Amino acid sequence: VLQKWVNREISNFDYLIQLNTMAGRTYNDLAQYPVFPWILRDYTSEELDLNNPAVFRDLSKPIGCSVVIIKIYFFFRYENFEDPLGIIDKFHYGTHYSNAAGVMHYLIRVEPFTTLHIQLQSGRFDCADRQFHSIPATWQALMDNPNDVKELIPEFFYFPEFLENQNGFNLGQLQISKEVVNDVVLPKWAHSPEDFIYKHRKALESEYVSAHLHEWIDLIFGYKQRGPAAVEALNVFY
């Protein structure tokens, strides 16, 4: 599979799906759901220029370290952490890039994930401000909040329906703007959920991502998961 990918005989999407499967990740287990990378950082432009490297996220860094000031925060958290009982090892991140709640967060508009989310929240929808209501706002939250280090799920590259509230669920309204949470707010460069998926998938298969995807794979599936390489890469999880 690796050789096929290197020879461009299979797509980046197919290779990531195969890696997830080999790593024991599966659609049948929310706690081990397939994980995909954030690949873009431009969610505000009117047009998406895939020939411009500046629109892409730095795939060599964990998503939590995309901003310098947060990167410094995590460095010092690791250096200064000490468990008095000596049980908990040092870590950069107290949460994880993939977990069951995160999967339900992204797929809240689609069953059976809607029901699972409601069960998780003791029989009701979570507060509207904490729900997945906007792709640009979700990216910005990653940049602003050191406690949010979620990567993406495969659906961001093939399943436009999860961005629409086709079942008409009452997801509440945002506290400050009073905006009703309905369909997911898309980047300006996407004119519909289908257009977002098309351009996002095109970005995944772009030359820039093809040349740098291995750097992210090192963090999630490779040698930077544990040990000195993980410490150096600021990639140690609780």
From TrEMBL:
Tell me the SUPFAM superfamilies matching this sequence: BEACH domain
Query: GO biological process annotations for this chain's record?
Result: intracellular protein localization
Could you confirm whether the keyword Disulfide bond appears in this record? no
Of the GO CC terms on this record, one is: cytosol
InterPro entries assigned: BEACH_dom, BEACH_dom_sf, BEACH_Domain
The record ties this protein, via Pfam families, to:
Beach
Stored CDD domains: Beach
| Top-rank taxon, per record | Eukaryota
Domain BEACH per the UniProt entry, residue ranges:
1-238
**Keyword terms, alphabetized:** WD repeat
Q: Which GO terms describe its molecular function?
A: protein kinase binding
Q: What is this protein called?
A: Neurobeachin-like protein 1
Q: Which organism is it from?
A: Eudyptula minor (Little blue penguin)
Gene responsible for this protein: NBEAL1_0
